[in-house]
Amino acid sequence: MNILIMGGDARQIYCAGRLSLEPGFDVCRSALGTEDFLGETAPCDLLLLPYKPIQGETIAGTSGENGEEVYFKEALSLVKDGGAVFAGKMDDEIINSLEVRKIAVHNWFSDKALTLENARLTAEGASQIITKNAPGGVSGSEILILGWGRVAKACAGLFGRMGADLSIAARRRETLTDCIYTYAGFIDPSKISEADVIVNTIPAQVFGEDELKHVRKGAFILELASKPYGIDFEKARELGIPAILASGVPGKYTPEEAGRALAESVLWHLKEGDE
User: Fold this and answer.
1) Is the dihedral of CA 271, 26, 50, 146 positive or negative?
2) For residue 182, what are the contacts with CB-CB under 8 A and spacing of at least 6?
3) Which of 121, 151, 118, 108 is nearest to 265 (CA)?
4) Contact of 207 with 232, CB cutoff 8 Å
5) CB neighbours of 39 closer than 8 A, spacing ≥ 6?
6) In degrees rounded to 5, what are phi and psi of residue 199?
7) Nearest 5°: phi and psi at 89?
C-alpha cells in the first residue's frame, strides 16, 4: 500500500515513521510543492493531509525551498480511484468529487479518540507556555478559560490538577453541566480583571476591545483556537496586551505522541474497513 503524507508539521514525521513499521506499507512524506515532485509521485492508495481544517487552495506546510506550495486539488489528483484521503474538514463539493471516484474521505475531527488525544496534548503544551510566561506558573495563577469544548475541558482538568485557580466562560451555560469550576458568565469583566492568564478555545472572535480593556497589567492571553481565532490581536497590540498565538501546539511540544495518534487513527480506519 502506497501512502503519501503531505504538509503539516513535525507530527507528520512521526506519523510516517509509525506507519512505515507496518508490513506492506510504502510511506512517502514530503513538504515539497514543486511540479517535478508532483509529476514523479506515483498514484497513492492513501493521502494524509494535516490535522487542521482545509482553508484556502493550498496545503499548509508544503512550502519547498523556493516557497512553492502544493495546491489541494493537485494533491487529490495523486490519489488512486478507490483510495482514501485523511484530512481536516473539507467542503461538500470536494467530498462529492472524491466520492464520484470512489475515494473514501476520513475527517480527522470525526475520530473522537483522536480529537480527545489532541486536546490532551494541546493542554500539556499550553501548560508549558503558561509556565514559561506567567510569573506564578500554572499553579500560582488565576486562569480564565473561554469555551467548554474538548480543548477547554482538557486544559481545565490539567490546570486544576496543577493547582491553578480556574474560571470558565462559555457562550451557552447549558453546556457547563459537567463543569466543576467557577462560572464567569460571558464574559464577566471582574473575572477578566482578576485573571493572570486568559486562555481562549473558541474559534470565533469573542474577545474584542470591550473585553480587552478589562485585562489587568501583567496578564497575558493565550490563543488556542483555530481561525478566525477568538482574540482581536490588532486591538490587543494597540492596548499593549501580550497575546500569544499558539496554533498547532501538539506539533510543537509533543510531536512524537501527536504523530503516533494520527497513525493509530489511520490504522483503526483501515482495520474497520476490512471488517
Assistant:
1) positive
2) 166, 167, 168, 191
3) 108
4) yes
5) none
6) -110, 120
7) -60, 130
The grid coordinates listed for 217 are: 497589567
pLDDT per residue over 55-114, tens digit each? 667 776 655 444 456 777 888 888 999 999 999 888 888 889 899 999 999 999 999 999
Residues, the chain, total? 275
Instruction: Using the structure block, give the residue that is written with the C-alpha cell 470525526.
Output: 110
| Global confidence as pTM | 0.88
Buried b / exposed e over 7-24, threshold 16 CB at 10 Å, is bbbbbbbbbbebbeeeee
3-state secondary structure of 104: strand
Q: Alpha-carbon distance 269 to 246, whole Å?
A: 29
Output the CA torsion 235→238→241→244 (10° steps): 60
Strand order in the sheet with 104-107: 26-30, 2-6, 44-48, 79-87, 104-107
- Which residue type is seen at 193? S
Cell numbers 503516533 correspond to: 260
